[in-house]
Design goal:
Layout lengths: L1 E2 L4 E4 L5 H10 L10 E3 L5 H4 L2 H8 L2 E4 L1 H11 L9 E4 L6 E3 L2 E7 L8 E7 L2 E6 L7 H7 L4 E5 L4 H6 L4 H8 L7 H9 L10 E5 L8 H13 L10 E4 L12
Parallel strand pairs: 2-3, 3-4, 4-5, 9-10, 10-11, 11-12
Antiparallel strand pairs: 1-2, 6-7, 7-8, 8-9
Length: 253
């Protein structure tokens, strides 16, 4: 959930209404009375399962690419999970505005129809969100620069994945260039002051696998990488590790 002075956005909707409301309660706040839009990164169920329900609940449009919308329609058929209040198509690289927030969707490498990450700018602040990607191309690195708040996938530890319970074909998928980011790839990015500027006040490691990673391991890898940065480019923000079960926040910029 992203809130500015007059605009409230939800990025992805993998959870249903009951679980969403429970998580707002856990954070000690009421559910938002108004949401101006739900932005979808890609069609996989952990990002889209509650989309139609929450869109109808808040009577707000869903913003997504046309290929992503078509895949959602294929996945869920002619049922309640495709009955979205209103659909607004977006295109990667084309900026658009909702309320007082300027938004850019950018292409990411993942095994989905047309997956995107998002960068949001409002009142001189920037928030960037990128999960579900197999590697970090230059385009992604470009859109993460100058972020005041960065949510970045740190999905798996390679060794845990290799010896873990997944079938081999799923392990291959996760490790592929259209799979998910490992702790080691994230560490390389965070340690390199030429690609990660380190200016974020908050850095959140997200989409942490419950089978192939641990929060402590993701944090240790990231802290070690941040510690390797040159002094003049030191990361002075706060590092957080998101849980799949417990909501994180709120944060103020």
């Amino acid at each position: 959930m992203l809130e500015s002075g007059c605009t409230t956005l939800l990025i992805d909707a993998g959870l249903g209404k009951k679980e969403m409301l429970r998580r707002f309660e856990t954070l000690g706040r009421a559910r938002p009375e108004k949401v101006d839009g739900i932005l979808v990164t890609h069609e996989h169920s952990d990002h889209s399962n509650g989309l139609a329900q929450m869109s109808r609940e808040w009577k707000c449009p869903a913003y997504l690419t046309a290929p992503t919308h078509r895949e959602i329609q294929k996945m869920y058929g002619d049922g309640p999970k495709t009955k979205i209040e209103r659909v607004e198509y977006i295109r990667p690289g084309i900026r658009f505005v909702i309320g007082d927030i300027e938004i850019t969707a950018f292409t990411i490498p993942h095994d989905a129809a047309d997956p995107v990450g998002y960068a949001f700018c409002a009142h001189g602040k920037k928030v960037a969100i990128v999960t579900d990607l197999g590697y970090m191309p230059e385009l992604v690195k470009h859109h993460l620069r100058e972020a005041d708040f960065l949510i970045l996938e740190s999905n798996h530890d390679l060794e845990m994945l290799k010896v873990g319970p997944y079938p081999w074909y799923i392990k291959q998928r996760v490790m592929s260039r259209t799979g998910h980011l490992s702790n080691s790839v994230v560490s390389e990015f965070l340690a390199d002051s030429e690609v990660f500027d380190g200016r974020a006040r908050h850095l959140v490691l997200a989409h942490v696998s419950e089978q192939n990673n641990t929060p402590d391991l993701a944090r240790i890898c990231a802290e070690e990488a941040l510690g390797r940065r040159p002094g003049e480019f030191a990361f002075r923000g706060t590092l957080h590790v998101a849980s799949q079960r417990i909501p994180l926040g709120p944060f103020e910029l």
